[in-house]
Design a protein that fits this description.
single chain, 143 residues, alpha+beta, 6-stranded mixed beta sheet, 4 helices, 41% strand
């Protein structure tokens, strides 16, 4: 029995967050299309799996995070998905342009949106867009 496009998209995004919580960058990257579009909260749009790999490495150097209470939703045709969750983090090393890091802990609600498509290699995540309240994060870390 094959799963529906909606179930496939749900599974793909759930696998993405399972890999995120396991600090499994290769596992996350394997779920992304080669030309993935990454819309960074209050930042730029980055393109490509290699650029996403560099983003993950930067994040790992500055932050330790876990996504909790993850709820995933997907369109019936499986081309769009969304996740809502709470990020529990620790600010490890000062990130350029942000407040000084001293191991501060933070908790933030996050919304994420995904595009899913099959470019001949099976369904993959083709877009990741994250939104959270940067002012709230800055307040929590003492900036």
């Amino acid at each position: 029995m094959t799963s529906s496009p909606q179930a496939t998209a749900l599974t793909l995004v759930q696998q993405y967050y399972a890999a995120f919580n396991a600090a499994d960058a290769p596992g996350m990257l394997a779920l992304l299309s080669e030309d993935v579009r990454h819309d960074i909260n209050e930042g730029e749009t980055q393109l490509g799996r290699d650029t996403f790999r560099a983003f993950l490495a930067k994040m790992d150097a500055h932050y330790r995070e876990q996504a909790a209470d993850v709820v995933v939703m997907a369109s019936a045709d499986g081309t769009r998905a969304a996740a809502e969750f709470i990020i529990h983090g620790e600010y490890l090393k000062t990130d350029a342009g942000l407040p000084e890091a001293a191991g501060q802990r933070y908790v933030l609600p996050v919304g994420a949106f995904f595009e899913v498509r099959d470019a001949g290699h099976g369904p993959q995540i083709a877009r990741v867009t994250n939104y959270y309240n940067l002012a709230d994060w800055t307040r929590q870390v003492g900036g």
